[in-house]
Amino acid sequence: MAAMPVPPAPAPPADVAPLSEPARVLNTFFAPSKTFSDLRRNASWWLPFLITTIVSLAFVYVVDQKVGFRKVVENQIRTQPKQADRIERMPADQREKTLQQQTSFTKAFSYGFWLFILGWSAIVAAVLFATLKFGLSAEVKYKTLFALVIFGGMPGILKALLAIMSLLAGVSGDSFTFQNPVATNPGYFVDPTASPVLHSLLTSLDVFTIWTLVLTAIGITCITKIKSGTAYAVVFGWYAVVVLIGVVFAAAFA
């Protein structure tokens, strides 16, 4: 009896071509799964961070020229009635000294904000790593999560560019603040002195922030075996904690 013919073994799937650094940046906006899957191969994050730094410095420079840091500080103080009242009670010379100090600090911090972005990304990556690694037993590397956080934060670049364009177009700086520079959330239209809690809560519903959260959740599903629903629960769950803390501070310092 003739032996049954053995079917040929299926050909192994072709390897997915690695993405270039510019392609990964572009795909973050148009095909994020491709970028985040590629992070498992190479967790490089220098290009998106470089772009973020350049846009951040450009934004701060435009604010410096079109609004002025003294005005930025005065606007910020007005959103905190307790602090505004305390400064208003100071003698004129002490009040001026305080405003000058706050202006100098705000200017230095703003021009060095790219360092804050780096540190904040490291903290976010650490929190996600602990949650995924120890809470959900996921196989994930910290460096990959750090790169994911950097790439996932790129929608913030578009928000900064919108703010730059609005200032260059002549929008008044009388109410400008770095915390809410452009109308991308409903909190922009709420007076923080009249309703600080509502303002803080509605500000958290920012279009670009939510975009970043969605990208981060997509990225987690790409670099781990965690289900999509779990990834969204982790990301938005931690964001809810941050929002709650912000609301508490807004109520305390109003």
Instruction: Please state the average pLDDT score.
Output: 92
Coarse shape: globular
Proportion in β-strands? under 5%
Largest sheet: none
Tally the helices. 12
Low-confidence stretches: 1-7, 9-14
Percent of residues in helical segments? 55-70%
How far is it from the N-terminal to the C-terminal residue, by CA?
91 Å
Could you walk me through the main structural features you see in this protein, from its secondary elements to its overall organization?
The structure is a single chain. The protein has 254 residues and is mostly helical. Helix content is 69%, strand content 0%. The protein has twelve helices and no strands. It starts with 20 loop residues before the first helix and ends with a helix.
Secondary structure layout plus pairing:
Elements: H1 21-30, H2 32-38, H3 46-66, H4 69-78, H5 81-88, H6 92-111, H7 113-135, H8 142-152, H9 155-168, H10 196-203, H11 207-223, H12 228-253
Helix pairs in contact: 1-2, 2-11, 3-9, 4-6, 7-8, 8-11, 9-11, 10-12, 11-12
